[in-house]
Amino acid sequence: MACLSACRTPQYGYSLLTTLSESGISAEANTLYPLLRRLEKQGLLKAEWNTDEPRPRKYYTLTDSGAEIAQSLWNEWRELTTSLTALWKDSPQ
Amino acid sequence: MNSLTSRYVEAVLRHVPESNREDIGQEISAAIAEMIDARLADAQSPGTQSAAPADVAAAERSVLEELGDPRQLSYQYTQRPRHLIGPELYPVYIRGLQWLLPIVGVLALLAALLVNGIVYSVTDPEPQIGALIGRSLGAAAGTTVLALLIAFAAITIGLAVFERLLPAGGFRELSGQDQEPWTVEHLDPVPAQRTPVRVESIIGLVLLALLASVPALPTTLFYIGHLNNGETFINPDLPMPWLLGYWSFLAVLAAVEVWTLNGKRPLTLASTGVRIAADALLASYLTAAVLTQQVLHPDLAAHLDLPAGVWIVLAGIWAITLWDQISTIRAYRADRTLPAQDE
Q: Do the chains contact at B30 and A56, CB–CB below 8 Å?
């Protein structure tokens, strides 16, 4: 979900790693790169090599179905957060 | 690209499908270069134009070690199953083994007994019933073990291949588990009788029948017929009352097993008590017989002239009795923990 959220704007592997890290989400490079590839295979991300820069970079962006999934995951996450918050408040301390 | 990075990329690509190698190789190389640049930028003092070669080498080493074992990274890319039989097929595997192995075992045993029996009867000029049984059983045991191993290997390899050919969740789709949700109608009825105790009783009856036949067993059954001209293991001159006593004890034990089989509650305190008492009395009776009578056939006893033989036999009798007593008490205790069945 974090990857899909971050890839709403085009990201290459290392920039995504940095974005996640700056948001407080720690991700290992050796997990992130294969994950991006799997998301691409599932049609949730679209990958494109950019060779205009001095170093070629593979940019990942959300596809339409990726955007739908990201929205649905986001909704689920908010519902879960609301439920857990309510549960935490109602529970005796 | 320098040597360590190319060696690392090469090590990763060795385990990924050939069709993806070029793309994955470029991606990993670019990622490593980005990570090295970021490390150097973090470490570089402001105003410095380029990093020293030693710093570049150290940054490269650090990045590669952070990425970790290339084999593990390649597994992440391939996502191949790293187990033989996964959780989706495991219940099928266990059920397959439970059904297949007994069927294969029985069929192989029967076929091997039949074939070996026929071959022995046809080829031996003077076939003897003891040798026929002994030889057929010996050969059939080997054949059965081999057949069981082959069946085990076949179902394991078959399902392992099947798992690798099916896409994720493919088995659920094939088996229709997705279409037909589970309902309470899928529950099996509670068995009317608790089978383990009853199965033990049936096995017990078979063993008692075997024990009862011991006085009549010929030595040819175990290829030692030449020692006493194929007569029985037991002294034919042993007074008949001793044999009748022996069979009486076995009859009492058999009655307890039948009682267990037919009872509402398989193991009652009474049936367990009678079994323990009959077991102990039988062992005492056999001890008395071994110490006071010539139980073994005299010709066999002459060949096995072992002074400690009697004590070895007695130790064996009491060890088996003790083991039987312990297992009886444990079965009784285990049965107490279950609720009684309505019939």
A: yes
